[in-house]
UniProtKB/TrEMBL annotation, chain A:
This is M48 family metallopeptidase. It comes from Sphingobium nicotianae. Belongs to the peptidase M48 family. The chain crosses the membrane at residues 100-119. GO terms for cellular component: membrane. Keywords: Hydrolase, Membrane, Metal-binding, Metalloprotease, Protease, Transmembrane, Transmembrane helix, Zinc. Its cofactor is Zn(2+).
Automatic annotation (TrEMBL), chain B:
This is DUF898 family protein. It comes from Sphingobium nicotianae. The chain crosses the membrane at residues 20-39, 68-94, 100-122, 153-175, 203-229, 241-267, 294-316. Keywords: Membrane, Transmembrane, Transmembrane helix. The keyword Lyase does not apply. The keyword Transmembrane applies.
């Protein structure tokens, strides 16, 4: 048996009272006991002793299952006492075991792999999600759009004609004109496409609409919206580790920067579809020109392009212009009467809810 | 305790000592996609607590990273599912034209978040006290904070009514409410600060609109002078544009600066009053940082973050804790033999809820 103390440099709290005591410690290979004025406590097993970390130069130990029990030494404990003790945790048990730098390399590699998978997986997973699931999700989201879809028999026929020309083999389940004053069109899960009324108002010809519609059909064909949903879900789970703000910003940036490649693919589909249908791509190019003026000019757009989810309008414009064949005789996508039916769909449809009552 | 010339609280840490902890925490947090921060927080607190002396002994932080992590996971389950429903369900509801229902749901969830922030504030304090040991004794509370959440809701609502005139009352009474349910060892905390003591300082906020009117007049005149003096500028339209942009920027800086200064002046008074109203058994607490000390702290924070291009952010915890401890004092005697172990139930997991709402500070 070996002993140390009692002296001022060894102290003890029993966890029931705040009084500081100076015990004599006696120990053997199996365990140790403390001798106080009030009597002897122990013997305690070495394995129950828990070294406390971050104690500022002192060595302090706790006892398993006795909160507040402390045995402290002013500096390091006596050598043959310390020989029985486990090491103090520093970065956390797992990291201490393999070393800081190896842990950093390991975690870094795992993190990179996780981020890569999360960014890529939606593309791998989305095709395996049954179309019927996507359809019910899309139907639940869109429904009848709160009675704001404009339709007359003539506009229906015109839209159908566009769909036949641009998306023959694409599983489109609905193309609706929504009575909402936004210059935009969206593809939603389940093969739904919504064209907002204001976009039709801004378009100067049916061929402009055809280009935009074909772009959205491209999204439906590639199941982009579903991929986007899966990605957002995955990112929000993985980036949950950071605090809300950092996670949210990174999430938004990644989700956006990624959808840019999907946007370009949809543009390529649009150009192909127009070509197949013998519709001129030039009106669509002009439409992007008009859009780029609306969004504050090329310079501003270029500087923001990495933040925006759509490719820069001027680049898109060039791509459409480039695909036009010189002196080729294109056919218009719709007759003037059919185009008129679409333009006036929202004023002709007497059952549609007015745009200003969105809520 | 102040009678022998030494203050009851002292801080002995140095930023050079703390730097290795701060930098390894940052590194590990990045490579683990943020998940290390629970363990990092624990290391930071172990350092800060162990370098904080109260009378004759340093404090001890016994919380663990795992506890904080479990708290985080629980909150993810509790709030994550409703959140996902809100984000996706709300879109669907609006698309389908159930706008009123969507807005109602949004308001309801906003209210829940409001209530839970109150609960979170309470539970954060309770968790921290239950993991803080001194002389082998810890603090805590037997209250779980669900009732405090309601108190937080109605007092804040009443407080912001009447042009916000009752905000000081809400803040002070909530502080007292919270601390009166806490204890250390066998002794309950006693918090009896009066809202009247901070009210005059709060009235500064009502001077703010007047300050702004005066400021905008001055700025407007400077702007006009700038335009008038702009002979070198080729086109008058452009000069006006530049003057206007300058005016807007200067106004924004002035407004934020003035508002921040008033808030700081009020908060410094608030903190002195509420801490000064606290006692534990025969110990009476005191906090002596004045508005000028808070200004120095915040300006120092801003300077540090700017000069280090943001890296200084990882030292803010350290600075704030040091500020808090060096300005905190206590007088009176505490009997060690009467200070026995707390019998309060210690919470099993960390401050996930507060973490989720980003409630920080002390």
């Amino acid at each position: 048996m070996t002993s140390a103390g009692p002296d001022e440099s060894i102290w003890h709290y029993d966890g029931t009272s705040a009084s500081r005591r100076h015990p004599r410690i006696d120990w053997t290979a199996d365990g140790f006991s403390l001798t106080l004025e009030s009597g002897v406590t122990g013997s305690h097993r070495w394995s129950d002793l828990v070294p406390l970390s971050g104690t500022g130069g002192r060595s302090v130990y706790g006892l398993r299952d006795v909160p507040g029990w402390r045995l402290g030494f002013a500096g390091a404990p006596p050598l043959d006492f310390a020989a029985h003790l486990p090491l103090v945790a520093r970065y956390g048990r797992m990291i201490d075991r393999i070393g800081l730098w190896r842990a950093v390399a390991l975690f870094g590699a795992v993190a990179a792999a996780v981020v890569f998978v999360i960014l890529r997986a939606p593309e791998w997973v989305a095709p395996y999600i049954p179309q019927s699931w996507e359809d019910s999700l899309g139907d639940a989201m869109v429904g009848d759009f709160g009675g704001r879809l404009c339709e007359t028999p003539a506009s229906r026929a015109a839209i159908d004609k566009l769909q036949r020309q641009l998306g023959q083999d694409v599983p489109i389940r609905q193309i609706g004109i929504a009575n909402i004053p936004i210059v935009n069109a969206v593809a939603l899960p389940g093969g739904h496409i919504l064209i907002f009324d204001k976009l039709i108002e801004q378009a100067r010809s049916p061929d402009e609409l055809a280009g935009v519609l074909a772009h959205e059909i491209g999204h439906v064909r590639h199941r982009d919206t579903l991929t986007g949903l899966v990605r957002q879900l995955g990112l929000s789970v993985v980036l949950g580790g950071f605090n809300g703000q950092v996670g949210g910003t990174v999430n938004g940036l990644l989700a956006m920067s990624y959808s840019r490649s999907a946007e370009s693919a949809a543009d390529r589909y649009s150009i192909e579809a127009l070509k197949r249908a013998n519709i001129s791509p030039l009106p669509t190019a002009a439409f992007f020109d008009q859009l780029s003026r609306l969004s504050g000019g090329e310079k501003i757009e270029e500087s923001m392009s990495w933040m925006a989810s759509h490719p820069v309008s001027s680049a898109r414009k060039a791509a459409f212009e480039h695909s036009a064949i010189k002196d080729h005789r294109y056919t218009p996508s719709l007759s003037p009467a059919e185009w008129q039916a679409i333009v006036t769909a929202c004023t002709d449809d007497k059952h549609v809810k007015p745009a200003d009552q969105f809520f | 305790m102040s009678d022998d010339g030494q203050r009851a609280f002292g801080f002995s840490g140095t930023w050079k000592d703390y730097a290795p902890i701060a930098f390894t925490n940052l590194l590990l947090t990045i490579v683990t996609l943020g998940f290390y921060r629970f363990w990092g927080t624990t290391r930071t607190r172990q350092y800060l607590w162990s370098h904080t002396r109260f009378i004759d002994e340093p404090l001890e932080w016994t919380g663990t990273g795992l506890e904080l992590f479990i708290g985080f996971l629980l909150v993810l389950l509790l709030l994550g599912a409703p959140y996902l429903f809100l984000v996706f369900g709300m879109q669907a509801l609006i698309f389908q034209g159930h706008g009123v229902l969507a807005v109602t749901l949004a308001l309801l969830s906003g209210f829940m978040i409001f209530y839970l922030s109150g609960v979170a504030l309470f539970r954060m304090l309770r968790y921290r006290l239950s993991r803080t040991y001194w002389h082998g004794i810890r603090g805590g509370s037997n209250d779980k904070g669900w009732g405090y959440g309601w108190s937080y809701v109605w007092r804040n609502i009443v407080g912001s009514a009447a042009l916000g005139l009752l905000i000081p009352w809400a803040m002070v009474s909530l502080w007292n409410d919270r601390w009166n349910k806490m204890s250390f060892g066998p002794h309950p905390f006693n918090a009896i600060a009066l809202p009247g003591d901070v009210f005059r300082r709060f009235l500064l906020f009502y001077l703010f609109p007047i300050i702004i009117i005066v400021l905008s007049l001055v700025m407007g005149m400077i702007g006009a002078a700038f335009v008038a003096a702009g002979g070198a500028v080729p086109r008058p339209g452009e000069a006006q544009g530049v003057g206007f942009v300058l005016f807007i920027i200067m106004m924004a800086v002035a407004i934020y600066g003035a508002l921040g200064a008033i808030a700081l002046a009020y908060y410094s008074k608030f903190f002195r009053v509420v801490v000064g109203g606290m006692s534990l058994s025969t110990l009476q607490f005191e906090f002596d940082a004045r508005a000028k000390d808070w200004f120095k702290l915040i300006l120092g924070d801003i300077g540090l973050v700017i000069v280090t291009l943001g890296v200084g952010l990882i030292f803010l915890n350290y600075r704030h804790w040091k500020f808090f401890v060096t300005h905190l004092d206590a007088t009176g005697e505490i009997s060690l033999s009467e200070l026995t172990q707390s019998t309060t139930a210690a919470p099993g997991q960390g401050e996930g809820l507060a973490d989720a709402f980003d409630l920080g500070a002390i």
